[in-house]
Design brief:
By secondary structure, the protein is of the alpha/beta class. It folds into 3 domains: 4-298, HUPs (Rossmann fold, 3-Layer(aba) Sandwich); 353-500, Isoleucyl-tRNA Synthetase, Domain 1 (Orthogonal Bundle), CATH 1.10.730; 549-653, Beta Barrel (OB fold (Dihydrolipoamide Acetyltransferase, E2P)). 44% of the residues lie in helices and 17% in strands. It contains 22 helices and 26 strands. The strands form 7 sheets. Strands 1, 2, 3, 4, 8, 13 and 14 form a 7-stranded parallel beta sheet that branches. Strands 17, 18, 19, 20, 23 and 26 form a 6-stranded antiparallel beta sheet that branches. The structure holds ligand ME8. Residues 16-19, 22, 27-28, 30-31, 56, 235-236, 238, 263-264, 266-267, 296-297, 304-306 line the site of ligand ME8.
Length: 654
């Protein structure tokens, strides 16, 4: 529950801002949709929400990606940013502010932070000598590198930097950070991550290099344009820009500090949990109420899903798969992917993403539990009550306790970011309602003419679907709207608000309108068979492919003409001849050929033949052979392959 104090202030939630060299993948989508669900919950409670996301554009890797695309960095960023904006739009992400770090307003705020910290002595000029990992955009000291001298985070090569640079005096704030975090542990969640941050800070915060030599990309250091501000220092400040720091004091006062800052676990310890908090301490600004680090989506073999590892899961491909396999609408498929991500893993832990798991949950949780309750209940209202929700008599409200429990669990889940627990509570309510229908058997009540009891049972069950729609609305907004429509509340102009999360608030007079099933069941056997058939086809195609060689493969075989200078039988065999061949090289080669039964040495001497010149040398019957002479014939050599006119030894044959 939001406290009164929080209600005066906006609910401010942030995601990381994503590097614009990438296109959004499932990992990015996880941070953003989770933040979206939390933001929607607070909006439903009537709070003023500022949900911030955006793109981090001043990275070196953006410059490199732009170069590879043949564009300047700004044009490249302008192009790629649309893939984030579009993806969030398609994934039902309703942010309030999208920041791009290349916007003038943000650049001005970054410069202002720099100026103030220079003035307070928190930033000073010195000399940087150390290592930099471009993919991670992180500075490392020699000691921090792993054994092979590689990046300790991603294991790739690092670059040596020796340059004049500015440093942020993070070392001055370590003790204060530890005190603050220990005093309010919920500032960094989950617990295991907080412990990592604390031990990192206790290990001694180093002053951080916060500039790079200006190579034309980044926010220039005010008054010293030979340098640009380090991408992380620049990016973290986006949270201040969005809140209006140094731009709009009133807005800032109403917004700061953030209530929740979400991020993946990889960018907590070094960046948000220490550098960011140290920056805020130096600026004398309040800490966010909670930094929450979620886990990673990994592959089945446990590898982090990321662009650089080439194993990305495209969320949109998963949406399309659901539409294709189930025939549901795209909006429903989007919500199903959101549901899967929130339900599959405890928020904070790692999870392995699989399309099979997604399809399985679609059937089991969405089609069976949720879809089933709707599909069996609404026809009953149509059949027995002309589709109209009636004012229930005494006896209604039998599921009130279950409703109360699910609401309490959902609220607790949203407040503590236990999205999985929140959904599990809703699904317990669904299963209680499905069981209730089975037990109370409205069809029997109808047959027995027990009208009052029948009206009460139908009311209770539809009331559950109403509350379920509200509880799942933050996570699955389109599905919730569709349920709202089907139970006739949309037509009555009733808004979805968290205040409605109480039993018995279903207004009599609502006219249910059953639609197509929201979650058509997927035939998982058919999918499995199809996947197996596709895999077989693919491996057949691969096999066929391996029968063929590419032009490039062919060109790797070095065929050359060679003149046979001498030929002798190889001792101990009647098949082999030892040839001395001039292949246009400094020295003639010795080649062993299986020609002895069809060709006499005399026939061969003086002959120009074709030689595989780059065949690995081999020892045949104790004789060294450097190459192979080409002859036609399946079982035995019937004819030598020879040029049809005179050519010099050593000519390339192709
Ligand atoms: O770090 N599973 O941006 P980014 C879960 N620009 N989350 C994942 C993930 C995965 N497989 N892969 C990435 C940056 N993420 C900086 C942030 S904020 C001031 C600057 C998450 O595009 C990752 O943990 O590399 C991080 O939270 C986010 O995606 C952005 O990653």
């Amino acid at each position: 529950m939001a406290t009164e104090e929080q209600r005066d202030k906006r609910f401010f939630i942030t995601t990381p801002i994503y590097y614009v060299n990438d296109r959004p993948h499932i990992g990015h989508t996880y941070s953003t949709t989770a933040a979206d669900a939390i933001a929607r919950y607070h909006r439903m409670r009537g709070e003023d929400v500022l949900f911030l996301t955006g793109t981090d554009e001043h990275a070196q890797k953006v410059v490199r990606a732009a170069e590879a695309a043949g564009l300047d960095a700004q044009s490249f960023a302008d192009r790629v940013v649309t893939s984030f904006v579009d993806m969030w739009d398609k994934m039902h992400v309703d942010y309030d502010c999208f920041i791009r770090t290349t916007e003038d307003e943000h650049k001005a705020v970054v410069a202002e932070v720099f100026r103030r910290l220079m003035a307070s002595g928190d930033i000073y000029k010195d000399h940087y000598e150390g290592w930099y990992c471009v993919p991670c955009e992180t500075y490392f000291t020699e000691d921090a590198l792993n054994e092979g001298g590689l990046c300790p985070d991603c294991g790739r090569e690092v670059e040596r930097l020796t340059e004049e640079a500015y440093f942020f005096r993070a070392s001055a704030y370590g003790n204060e950070l530890v005190r603050e975090i220990e005093a309010q542990p919920e500032r960094i969640m989950p617990d295991s991550r907080r412990n990592e941050v604390l031990s990192f800070i206790r290990g001694g915060l180093q002053d951080t290099c916060v500039t790079r030599a200006n190579q034309g990309w980044g926010v220039p250091v005010p008054g010293d344009e030979a340098h640009v501000i380090y991408v992380w220092f620049d990016a973290l400040i986006n949270y201040l820009t969005a809140a209006g720091w140094s731009l709009d004091d009133e807005k800032f006062a109403a917004t700061w500090p953030p209530d929740v800052q979400l991020m993946g676990k990889d960018i907590l310890t070094r960046f948000h949990g220490s550098l960011w908090l140290a920056m805020l301490t130096a600026l004398e600004l309040e800490f966010p109420a909670m930094l929450f680090a979620h886990g990673w989506w990994v592959t089945a073999s446990g590898e982090k899903i990321s662009k650089s590892r080439g194993n990305v899961v495209d969320p949109w491909a998963e949406v399309e798969l659901l539409v294709e396999e189930s025939g549901c609408t795209t909006d429903v498929a989007v919500d199903a992917v959101r549901y899967y991500m929130f339900r599959e893993v405890t928020f904070g832990l790692d999870g392995s993403f699989s399309s099979e798991g997604l399809l399985g949950r679609f059937n089991a949780d969405l089609a069976n539990d949720l879809g089933n309750l709707l599909n069996r209940t609404l026809p009953l209202v149509e059949r027995y009550a002309g589709g109209m929700i009636e004012q229930p008599g005494p006896g209604a409200g039998e599921l009130s306790e279950e409703i109360e429990r699910a609401v309490a669990r959902a609220e607790h889940g949203f407040e503590t970011l236990d999205l999985r627990g929140m959904l599990m509570g809703v699904w317990e309510l669904l299963s209680a309602a499905n069981k209730f229908v089975d037990e109370r058997a409205p069809w029997d009540l109808y047959k027995q003419g027990k009208k009052v009891e029948l009206a009460a049972v139908l009311y209770d069950v539809v009331d559950v679907t109403r509350v379920v729609a509200l509880l799942i609305a933050p996570a699955m907004p389109s599905v919730a709207e569709e349920i709202w429509r089907q139970i006739g509340l949309d037509a009555m102009g009733i808004e979805m608000s968290w205040d409605g999360c109480e039993a018995g608030k279903l207004p009599p007079g609502a006219q249910v309108r059953r639609g197509r099933p929201i979650f058509p069941r997927i035939d998982l056997d058919r999918v499995r068979q199809r996947v197996a058939a596709e895999a077989a086809e693919e491996s057949e195609a691969e096999e066929e492919e391996t029968d063929m060689i590419s032009y490039d493969d062919f060109m790797e075989i070095e065929l050359r003409t060679g003149k046979v200078l001498d030929a002798d039988p190889v001792e101990g065999t009647d098949k082999l001849l030892k040839l001395v061949v001039d292949a246009g090289e400094d020295e003639p080669r010795q080649v062993v050929a299986g020609l002895a039964q069809e060709f006499s040495p005399r026939e061969l001497i003086g002959q120009t033949v074709v030689l595989v010149a780059n065949l690995e040398p081999a020892t045949i019957r104790g004789v060294q052979s450097q190459g192979m002479v080409l002859a036609a014939g399946t079982d035995k050599p019937l004819a030598l392959i020879v040029p049809d006119r005179d050519v010099e030894p050593g000519e390339r044959v192709r």
